[in-house]
Amino acid sequence: MRRAIASLSLTLILTACAKAPAYDLLLVGGTVIDGTGAPRRTADVAVQGDRLVAIGPDLPRRRAKRIIDVTGQVVAPGFWDSHAHLVTLEDHPLAENLIRQGITTVLAPLHSQDQPFPMDAYQARVRMAPNVGLFAGHTWIRKRVLGLADRAPTTAELDWMRALVDSAMTQGALGLSTGLEYIPATYATTEELIALAEVAARHGGLYVTHLRDEGPDVLASIDEMLTIGRRARLPVQVNHLKVTGARQWGWSERILARLDSARAEGLAVAADIYPYTAYSTYSDLMFPPWALADGPAAFARRVADPDTRARLVREMRNRFPEQAGADATSIQFREVPSDTTLAGRTLADLLAARGRPNTIAEAVEALIALQLAGGFIGIFHGMSRSDVERFLRHEGTMLESDGDLVSFGRGHPHPRSYGAFPRVLGEFVVERGILTLEAAIHRMTARPAAWIGVRDRGTLAVGLKADLTVFDAAQVRDAASYLTPHRWPEGITLVAVNGMIVFRNGTMTGERPGIFLRQPDAKPTPEPM
Ligand SMILES: [Zn+2]
Question: Which residues of 56-65 are buried (b: 16+ CB within 10 A; e: fewer)?
Fold first, then answer.
């Protein structure tokens, strides 16, 4: 009897050994925030191959090939960047400036740029660190069929455009994307967009858009998107939701009300935002387009003509609060070829140094003089903080960088390319408490995954793909600024994609385990907002 018991317990021990999981990676002691919005808990996280195989307290360490102690740090699903520009992915397959932000999946609606084509050859060729989702790009399709022509397509041309959307969707595109503020997409009528969106809808895709206008006509632009959603019967998403220009500040409330009432009527509506109140671009933005046509010499001729100059001044005074802030403090110089000492200072500083009052009229005169001297790259503080916060708090919002893939130290990117996600965590969550950490991570992970209809990633749950981001909540912050954009963020300590570590303790591993997301068979499953 005793012998039988001994033999039985030996069997149990052997069975237990055989069943002891062979983890490839075991993260121990972390604070798990699983992406669902559920409260944090202390647990170990085990990975085998590309999957999460166990999450719980005190997982057996014996057969783990690699153990990393993450005590005191947050273990979250890898972040989803709902909108970034990946045109140069083949040159930057590691997507270092996104991975270092904790981003493991990037949605790339190339709404103002060319899309890869044919998409399946591109997908077969490119090996990259993050997972990537592609879209059928309206701009590229329109250029291919109509060039830069400002006209509606003929029936035959529209059929061709629809065939190109269909082809992209068949090759795995997640939907149709548009960039309606840019040439030539801006020439498209709503009817053209509906005709193309119907094709995406047939494949279960989304419609994502850079709105036709983000300033004075933003509400009409939102309405256009909602019309496309209703008529083509597909979910719609605003990329980089914002309202620019001091005259429109506070409109976030009306914009959200409009999105909410569309939701209440049954339309699937979402938006993504980046956490900055400024954009950065050329001084051209402050001038009516006619004034800059045909280059600097033509501009100088117009300024020299008294009548034309008077018209220019009149339009610019009106345009100023539609594009920038209420006064000259809202324009900050980044690069001024004609006077490098101005970098970092504001237009108001320039007026003060010359003994001029800080008025719109004086600001316009100074802008004209600067433009005659070659113009500048500016930082336009054209959004209000309370609008950004109101958008961020809203349940229907996801996060994005709107960033580019950059070469460290080269050029002058917007700091969002380096810091968008750590900035949300560091400034908006930890420092200012706009959102809880659980809510912020939900907007970065499970929400976008559910919105796209991807079911095998986006949360930390056994059986799902092991996309992981580990960070120290007390340290996480963005370091990139408008004047010194080339600064890596801080506090992100480990990033894994499909079970493989791509970044750890300040170093990229060089691994490229990312996959291309395919349009899922399942329809998007937006959560109740
Ligand atoms: Zn855009």
Answer: eeebeeeebe
Ligand 1 mean position, distance from CA 517 (Å)? 21
- Alpha-carbon gap, residue 313 to 368, rounded angstroms: 9
How far, in Å, CA of 443 to CA of 512, rounded? 25
5 CA distance to ligand 1 middle (Å): 70
* Dist CA 366 CA 352 (whole Å): 12
Task: Give CA–CA dist 313/408, Å, rounded.
Answer: 40
* 503-522 pLDDT per residue, tens: 999 999 999 999 999 876 54
Gap between the Cα atoms of 99 and 80, Å rounded: 10
Interval between CA 242 and ligand 1 midpoint (Å): 11
Distance (Å) from CA 81 to ligand 1 centroid: 14
Q: Which of 136, 93, 145 lies closest to 116 in space, CA to CA?
A: 136
pTM given for the model: 0.89
Q: Is the dihedral of CA 262, 263, 268, 269 positive or negative?
A: positive
What count of residues does the chain have?
529
Question: Can you say how many angstroms the Cα of residue 402 is from the centroid of all Cα atoms in its chain?
Answer: 4
**Structure tokens belonging to residue 41:** 């808990």
| Residues 6 or more apart whose Cβ sits within 8 Å of residue 323 | 215, 244, 245, 285, 286, 380, 382
Give per-residue pLDDT as tens, 210-264. Answer: 999 999 999 999 999 999 999 999 999 999 999 998 889 999 999 999 999 999 9
Q: Which residues surround ligand 1, an ion (CB under 5 A)?
A: 210
Amino acid in position 123: Q
Contact 46/55 with Cβ under 8 angstroms? yes
Residue 111 alpha carbon to ligand 1 centre in Å: 7
C-alpha span between 529 and 526 (Å, rounded)? 8
Residues with Cβ within 8 Å of residue 529, at least 6 apart in sequence: 260, 263, 269, 395, 396
55: which 2 tokens? 């999450």
Give distance in angstroms: CA of 112 to centre of ligand 1: 7
Alpha carbons 364 and 377: distance in angstroms, whole number? 16
**428: DSSP letter:** I
Distance 241 CA to ligand 1 centre (A): 9
CA dihedral sign of residues 313, 316, 321, 324: negative
Distance 7 CA to ligand 1 centre (A): 69
